[in-house]
Structures
1.
Amino acid sequence: MAVQLEGEATLTSEDQHSTEDAVLALFKHAFLNNAAQDISLQRELHRAWLKKGLVSLPPNFAGLDASRPWFVFWITHALELLGDYDEPHWSYQVAGFIAHCQDPTGGFAGGPQQLPHLAPTYAAVSALVVAGTEAAYKVVDRKAMYGFLMRMKSPDGGFKMHDEGETDMRGCYCAIATASMLHMLSDELLEGVPEYISRCQTWEGGIAGEEGLEAHGGYSYCGLAALCIAGKADALDLHSFLKWAVHKQMSHEGGFQGRANKLVDSCYSFWQGAIFPLLHEAFRQKGGSMPLPDDHCWFSPQPLQMYLLLACQHPNGGLRDKPGKSADFYHTCYALSGMAVSQYDVQGNTSIVGDIHNLLERTDIYYNVLVEKAERRSAYFNSLPPLEIDGRSLQGGEGPGAVAWRKRVLASRRVQEVDASPSSAIGRKGGYAGGDVE
């Protein structure tokens, strides 16, 4: 979205123009030097950088000691998107470390011997799903976890992040997604949640972290995804939400901003980019007369991929927020996640900037783990007997919205596999910058 100066330069507008100049300079360099035909995701560079971080972190990361399950998730999910998560090698180690972060009273902490918190709880469970083994799934004490999630529930319908902690939109998503992944999303957990999230939808259309605040990309994803998991997105004004979201893709850079008058940031490639297929599925499940696109759901995937590939790859490995910034695991994870979202349309066809080798694995837009890993997890937890809580069988399971979407994706994939010939085993459209890849 273009900056509206109204005759006055501000620090915000100057930062915007300098960011545009930096990004456009990289675009011009690529095209003027005929490098557009060779736009590539530096897979080997990123793999090496990620694996080094999974083994050990430098001393300056000590201040992030309460985020250790997040590092495991960010790194392992980035590796699985690249198709380079070595399950036999890493899964045992991941499960072993995450087990040390589990609190006896339920939930996971940011590190061993710390207090349980909803954010690292979601990260820990997601990392175990990425690990993808029965041993990893068994790490979770589901009975204690359910008690923890219920303790975090607030009277207003939201969730506290930790005991005596703040209640905001992160809590809703982390609690609902965790419960759904573990097949214990119940009516009592969901009670009041749709109403709480709808109260946080702003006049702009997006969702704020708390009622009365500004709409924000990260909180918007959290609120929408939580409702979509439960099949209750109709609690929102979806048309207003869509109108807000489409204005967050930047006209020059191609990436997304998180809120009005903010700079482009690669992490919003997922937080904003995944909103569109979620909205598409929400409209589809709601029904009605609104025509739904078959392609990329109201945003432009090619400019987004151009931004990520040309402006966000760090020469030493990893992806960064924007030119001039350092790479980090958080931005690497969510930049790649957003790229993966943008490469697949609702029919499962692909749209790839550059070479076919830039294609990433498909991520589940509800949980942000690979679709295959989400399905494998689902099969395991479906095979278990009902969870016994205080002498009663818990009437809970996976969220119906997440189940319905994944079934559609997998069914579409099976149809493509049947129809595919050896010369077109991956259904795909022409490359945006690199010519036809057919």
2.
Amino acid sequence: PVFEGIFEAAALAVEKGLATVKQADVITAKALKMGVGPFTAHNLAGGNPLPQHGLDEMHTKIMAWYKSPRLLDDQVKAGKPWETPGKGEVVEYSPGTYEAVSNRVMGAYFGMVCEIVESGIANIGDMEMAIDVGLVMAPPFELMNQIGVNRALELVQAYAKENPGFKVAGLLTKQAASGKPWKIPRVLREDKGNIAIVKIRRPKVLNALNTEVFEQLKEIFSAIQKDPKIKGAVLTGFGTRAFVSGADIQMLASQKTPEEAEAGCLRSQAVPNLIENLGKPVVCAMNGLAFGGGNELAMACTARIAARGQKVFVAQPEPRLGIIPGCGGTQRLPRLIGIEKAWAMLRSGNPISSARAKEFGLIQEEVEGDLIEAAIDWVRRISSGKAAVPTIPRGPISIPPKLPEVDIGHLSRKIDSLIQKTILEGAKMSLEEGLKLEARTFGECLLTQDMKIGMENFMKNGPKVNAGFVHH
């Protein structure tokens, strides 16, 4: 009922004389970060009468506020499209008009989703993802956290006061009283017998890691560690395209000083360190590509398996952003596959296939069938001693007398020198000390011009446009 309810709220604002159809369309789209406004969406659906029928059904089955507005009844009866903004048309409105319409559509939006979650039909995580992906608009609980849960409650209460039959969910009142933001599940746990299945779910950003994800992973794996019923775990990602596409670029870009960046790395490293030292086997079921932090997270697991036939599978693309890996890549990759192979991967940022990853020893198996079932089988065999997997050396590792030449192309020579230093100096240390070195050196990247150039290029142009590094 969410889209229909947003349409109703916008239409009622027009009926009350708060805005024209065009104004309500663009204001609603802006306030809720929709791809197109509700009236435009109705036109694109061919003036479908389903919202009219649906709203009248919801009136009796969900809450009395839902009801096809007169504006919609008249339009369906006339069989005409709404007069919406043309391509490139700029619709003028005053700040007062924007506030009047946006407050009402947000109040209706927040009230509806809280009522749906309170009814038990969906949980917060499922509701958030369904709206984000299915309706292409601002996820509601994230938006409430951004404006403040108390402010969200005020908007809902004001809307309910003005619109008889509109419910204020106790769920929202309780959350506002707690003084805390909504906790939105980005990492899910489901136990299958004595094996915990942990899934990272941020599909719109290919399961990229951010502070929220790291915190939830830490919380979930800490609980798994203490749970006597659980013998091991499977770590995987949502969907088929990516296990984890890397660290969220906004999280990286928000770091302003070397000290802040170093501290951020150490916080992030705490999660793979926890997984590595869990005392129970953790098998990473790599359901898609694993770039940057995704591969770093996977390498901390006891074993790794992957869906077969992935041409672009694993990479440490950090030098393309003007940074070095900061979550263990420069230390675990050389220890896992050898310095020679890791040397090229870490310095070039180029990806390898799942077949090559198996050849390198980065993964234990390419799986044709059900990846999760295969991972569960690996956990059981490891925990029973029936399968042996190589462990990452905790001490120093030997450095070959000669390392392969690597063509780094357009990449920053300044950042490349930091990568080389971190690999070679870290190899002479314990893993624990090497990880601290990596965090410090990541902080040094903030002192370079090339980190700024790389980050700005990625945020502006995406990964396909090479940054114009100046090697300083």
3.
Amino acid sequence: MNDALDEGRRVLFEGAQGVMLDIDQGTYPFVTSSNPVAGGVTIGSGVGPTKIQHVVGVSKAYTTRVGDGPFPTELHDEIGDQIREVGREYGTTTGRPRRVGWFDSVVVRHARRVSGITDLSLNSIDVLTGIEKLKICVAYKLNGEITEEFPASLNELAKCEPVYEEKCQDGQRILQV
């Protein structure tokens, strides 16, 4: 791979899982045993970090989480059930329902920072079709203060309340995005 890069050829690396599951940058202890952040590519491939020119972050238009851990935008209602069903948000191996919530821009900004994301691909927008009022978490409220920064500790994250912007849609318009 290094030879290909040295020759000016393009190489695409694909990671798995999400930044919040990263053993160092995620919500420890609710993490995996590896580094899903973009820097993990250099560890697994033997390619030096200076050779990575573009990092495309990939996110769904809503948030999911497998297993335990704080989840400020989690939905415990019919909308959450609808997103889970339409998005087929069930564990691949276990079939266990994934936890779902509104899009969390605080988490995406954190992911951008720790992975050096240069471009963002927003997927599964169509899953939100038919939901009249969409919510986007733009900040957290922590101890009465509004913050756009991801909390430094798990205890602080557990205390965060999402601050939302609401967007209305007419049902079919989202398919034109």
4.
Amino acid sequence: MDKRVEIEVLNPRGVIESAPTFAPAPRVDDLAGKTVGLYSNGKDGMDRFYEVFTELLKERYPTAKTIYLSGDYLINDKNANEWDSRIDTFVYGVGD
């Protein structure tokens, strides 16, 4: 009974392919006179957070305006293109 046993050992770590990277959009130099889009996907807590955020923004930049935007977790191209003509910069928030 001299049978040989062969065991194949596999690496459980696998290979993770990295997603393509891209440079972030340039920052706005100053918020004075700018329109800031405040995006929420409707989770609890975002309304109050953005109320306070808007108050603090107005204290520091009295001429800045805010627009409340909402939608799904992932922003589609149609919404992004529509908002692009209405806002100068953008805040994406998730509540809870």
